[in-house]
Design a protein that fits this description.
about 15% strand, 6-stranded mixed β-sheet, alpha+beta, transcription regulation, Rna Polymerase Sigma Factor, Chain: A, sigma factor activity, Nuclear Transport Factor 2, Chain: A, 2 domains
């Protein structure tokens, strides 16, 4: 696998570090790639904690294979190749989904939100394009078989040419081209109303409309105003509360009724506070609950919202307890 052009300062420094056998020096050179590699692993795995682990495994494997880097490929390319194959190895061993689950798909059992504070800082990087980190995109990609998933991410998200992707995955160019065509068809079917040109300029900032809906969503919780909450939801709401259930399409009234029947907004689950945040470059509300026997509000759940024309079209809820990597205060 080759990238045209002479060695850059990064590659030269990396080769020197590899030859020195100095692990600390090696880590210093490779650390700058951690965040983007972690996003890459997250797209492959849909799970933040697994992505963290596989990124660390990538660096360990890179250290063990350091003598194989000759500078024929860019250092970033070499590391992405290792990370991709680390994820493929992990997916081969991941516990399969039990049969009989509603059409949740494997991604529902493993899906976790990605904290925006851990995204790469460069807003121009394709790895942080909002359209390629939103939950709907991550879920759609999980519908692909692992190797097809890798092809799609390398080719259509990172923009690698077919020959480079083929080298990374030890496939023929024809196999990569065929896999990409199949992957594109699956992703289009999963995201019929979304923009599919992943490499064109993408938005990163929330709109005023999105911020307003998040505030109204939190206010409705704090007031236990079920009518206001219902009015914020589209009547074809796509809802998931993970990992307990798969995605369900329901009316706004049915959604709120199901939450009430599950115990929310009833005594002991009716004293809420909220913090506006973002995950996966999506607007989100961190919800805190205070129970009668506890003087403090404790982090309960995080709701990631996809907002269309001032209404919540998709709501994905996650249990937020025990996840310090979300960067949210545990109590208020």
């Amino acid at each position: 696998m080759t990238d045209a052009g002479p060695l850059s300062a990064d590659e030269a420094t990396f080769i020197a570090a590899a030859r020195s056998g100095d692990a600390a020096r090696f880590a210093l050179v490779t650390e700058r790639y951690r965040r983007e590699l972690q996003v890459h692993c997250y797209r492959m795995l849909a799970n933040y904690e697994d992505a963290q682990d596989m990124t660390q495994e990538t660096f360990l494997r890179a250290w063990n294979k350091r003598e194989s880097f000759k500078g024929h490929a860019a250092l970033r390319t070499w590391l992405y190749r290792i990370a991709t194959n680390v994820c493929l190895d992990f997916l081969e061993k991941r516990t399969p989904v039990p049969s009989g689950l509603a059409d949740a798909g494997s991604e529902v059992l493993y899906l976790q939100p990605y904290p925006d504070r851990m995204l790469p800082e460069d807003p121009q990087e394709s790895v942080v394009a909002r359209e390629t980190i939103e939950l709907a995109f991550i879920v759609a990609v999980q519908r692909l078989p692992p190797r097809q998933r890798a092809v799609f991410i390398l080719r259509d998200v990172l923009g690698w040419p077919a020959s480079k992707a083929a080298d990374a995955l030890e496939l023929t160019v024809a196999s990569v081209t065929s896999a990409l065509q199949r992957a594109r068809g699956t992703v289009r079917a999963q995201l019929p109303d979304r923009r599919l040109d992943w490499r064109s300029p993408a938005t990163h900032e929330l709109t005023d409309d999105e911020r307003g809906v998040v505030k109204s969503y939190m206010d409705a919780h704090e007031r236990n105003d079920l009518d206001a909450l219902t009015s914020l939801l589209r009547d074809d709401l796509r809802f998931a509360m993970l990992p307990e259930m798969g995605t369900t399409v329901m009316t706004a009234e049915d959604a709120v009724d199901s939450w009430v029947s599950g115990g929310l907004f009833q005594r002991g689950h009716d004293d809420w506070r909220g913090i506006a945040t973002t995950v996966n470059r999506m607007p989100a509300a961190a919800l805190y609950l205070r129970t009668p026997d506890d003087p403090r509000y404790r982090l309960f759940a995080i709701a990631a919202l996809h907002i269309v024309d001032g209404k919540i079209a998709e709501l994905t809820g996650f249990d937020a307890g025990g996840k310090p990597w979300l960067g949210l205060p545990p109590t208020l």
